[in-house]
């Protein structure tokens, strides 16, 4: 049943991915594109772009869009439910115990171990998305402008998104 597949897939992604939405992108790509074939890689990249521009967490938006694309309203409902369930359970457990044990060396060790893997997962997402996105000189120029705007000029992300969209229109 498609609803169970959507729920269990996004439950797995939510339960075993750390580091936020961008770190989850490789998991989304593997499950949604490679394993289940619900979307093509090109469609997945479109969904990522839409999820980034839509208010709310990237991973939840992406799960909702993939679910809707796959099985309509109820697909989006079960995908979103699967995505948020692990976080809700984990945060309730953490909230119960964290303040009691936050100074514990083992807790600090666990957190110290999770931080680098979160960075690695974000880097993997960048590499994976770059392979499918940077396919012409136009996209490379837009990337360069976005990086310069972000790191050198400290421009606001909304401005950069609008600028990139405008450049995309002008370069076609």
Order of helices and strands: HHHHHHH
- In DSSP terms (H or I, runs of 4 or more residues), the helix count works out at 7
Shape descriptor? globular
Tally of individual domains = 2
Helix content: over 70%
Task: Describe the protein.
The protein has 172 residues and is mainly alpha-helical. The protein folds into two domains: 2-131, no CATH class; 134-172. Helices cover 85% and strands 0% of the residues. The chain has helices spanning 2-16, 21-35, 41-53, 58-101, 105-133, 137-152, 157-170. The model has no long low-confidence stretch (mean pLDDT 89).
Secondary structure layout:
Layout: H1 2-16, H2 21-35, H3 41-53, H4 58-101, H5 105-133, H6 137-152, H7 157-170
Helix pairs in contact: 1-2, 1-4, 2-4, 2-5, 3-4, 6-7
What attributes does this structure have?
single chain, 172 residues, mainly alpha, 2 domains
Summary of the model, kept short:
The protein is an all-alpha fold. Helices cover 85% and strands 0% of the residues. The longest helix is centred in the middle third of the chain and has 44 residues, at 58-101.
């Amino acid at each position: 049943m498609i609803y169970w597949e959507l729920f269990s897939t996004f439950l797995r992604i939510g339960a075993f991915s750390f580091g936020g939405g961008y770190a989850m992108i490789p998991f989304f790509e593997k499950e949604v594109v490679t394993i289940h074939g619900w979307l093509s890689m090109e469609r997945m990249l479109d969904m990522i772009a839409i999820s980034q521009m839509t208010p709310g967490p990237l991973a939840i938006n992406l799960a909702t869009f993939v679910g809707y694309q796959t099985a309509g309203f109820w697909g989006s409902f079960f995908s979103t439910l699967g995505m948020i369930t692990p976080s809700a359970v984990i945060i309730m457990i953490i909230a119960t115990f964290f303040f009691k044990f936050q100074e514990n060396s083992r807790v600090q060790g666990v957190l110290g171990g999770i931080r680098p893997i979160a960075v690695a997962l974000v880097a993997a997402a960048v590499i994976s998305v770059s392979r499918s996105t940077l396919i012409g000189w136009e996209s490379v120029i837009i990337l360069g402008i976005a990086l310069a705007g972000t790191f050198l000029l400290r421009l606001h992300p909304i401005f950069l998104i609008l600028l990139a969209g405008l450049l995309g229109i002008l370069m076609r």
